[in-house]
Amino acid sequence: MESARPVPFLDLKAQQARIATDLRRRIDAVLAHCQFILGPEVAELERQLAEFCGAAHCVAVSSGTDALQIAMMAEGVGPGDAVFLPAFTYTATAEVPLLLGATPVFVDVDPHTFQIDPAHLATRVEQVRAGGKLRPRALIGVDLFGQPADWAALREIAARADLFALDDCAQSFGASLHGEKLGRAADATAISFFPSKPLGGYGDGGALLTESAERAALYRSLRTHGEGTTRYDVLRTGMNGRLDTLQAAVLLSKLTVFADELLARERIAAVYDSRLGHAVQIPARVPDSTAAWAIYAILLPGTAARDRLQAGLKAAGVPSAIYYPKPLHHQPAYRASHDGTALPVSEDISTRIMALPLHPDLTDQDVERIVKAVLAHV
Ligand SMILES: Cc1ncc(COP(=O)(O)O)c(C=O)c1O
After folding, report:
1. What span, in angstroms and rounded, lies between the C-alpha atoms of 311 and 349?
2. How many helices and strands, by DSSP H and E, does the chain display?
């Protein structure tokens, strides 16, 4: 008999129970000192995050989206600039260049790993150059679903075309590539602490990582209204983009269990791989990498098969989600800025992709139940 309790897609309460004592201690410390803006926990978090991934500098900010925006503002990206990014990603990646007056140029993705396709990026850069209307200026490579993009290839193309390379690592902090944690793969790396991310806070939050002291100083200035060395010294147009001290306290507590949670996520992904790989298309592993498994996405043969599986899982108390039902160049907000290039992989996989629950608090019984429910409906 199946248990009546639905499997949680995400279980922040279970995680909270595991870290309750430390979490309370951290929050109480903030309530005691009352430095709610840029309190000591923010600097401590920045140190710990930089250390975790071996980055030289970390600047904590108000969200992953603001991290992307601050990084682009620091480079002076604006009207006339082409910013290359995958068509198959979350909307924030494309929203930021548009907010700054630049033009997103959508690039297709790999059909097996779902990561941005370096060969297509090179083609798109050449197209933009030949078109003569926009200046190739920046790349936002996304590490999608917890796996890293092919940064060796992306960096080479970016260097050849003189693009600023920004790693949108919102979903994949904790993953590694060629033996190094993500955080140093590009000129700057943006991460998100949205609650459902592998390292999630209790509200919005994000951070920028970079090897460049100059960039880090600019990010600090931009996150506080473009300030200079004193508070009322305004050097540039900035924003209110700071991370709250309370969020930093929560994240410091969550960092104590983060490495173990990454191992738990990998264990579950390995079970899905071995038990489901013969029945559905599982995500191909990016070579020489480890994943943070924010999302475990499978591919079904088509939309009807996906609908059937989703309905079957729902009846069995197993939730699922679709990331992403539309590639960005088909979204009303971005259609007008797209040059009409077909992006066949992004267009195809959005019709048949589906995510299964994957988080560190799934029990072995939950995982077994998910596997059996999938196998019963494909
Ligand atoms: C790929 C990607 N980029 C950027 C963001 C934006 O992060 P945030 O929600 O913290 O602004 C997200 C997630 O929300 C994301 O998944």
Report:
1. 19
2. 13, 12
Would you state the pLDDT for residue 1? 46
pLDDT value of residue 3: 53
Q: What are 173's two structure tokens?
A: 């902090």
Percentage, residues of the chain above pLDDT 70: 99
CATH of the domain at 34: 3.40.640.10
User: What's CA 291's distance to the chain center, in Å?
Assistant: 12
206 CA closest ligand 1 atom index: 10
**How far, in Å, are 35, 140, 274, 364 from residue 239 at the CA level?**
20, 21, 47, 45
- Give the mean model confidence (pLDDT) for residues 310-332: 97
Q: Provide the pLDDT for residue 63.
A: 98
Contact 140, 83 (CB under 8 A): yes
* pTM, full prediction: 0.98
Tell me, yes or no, whether 192 and 59 share the same domain.
yes
Interval between CA 106 and ligand 1 midpoint (Å):
17
6 assigned to some structural domain: no
Ligand 1 atom nearest the C-alpha of 205 is 10
Q: Which of 253, 272, 289 is the last residue of a domain?
A: 253
Q: Would you say 215 and 167 are in contact if contact means Cβ atoms under 8 Å apart?
A: no
C-alpha 118/C-alpha 196 separation (Å) is 28
The token pair at 279 is 């029945």
Site to probe by mutation for ligand 1, drawn from 171, 223, 244 as the one with most ligand atoms within 8 Å of Cβ, is: 171
More confident residue, 5 or 49: 49
pLDDT at 125: 98
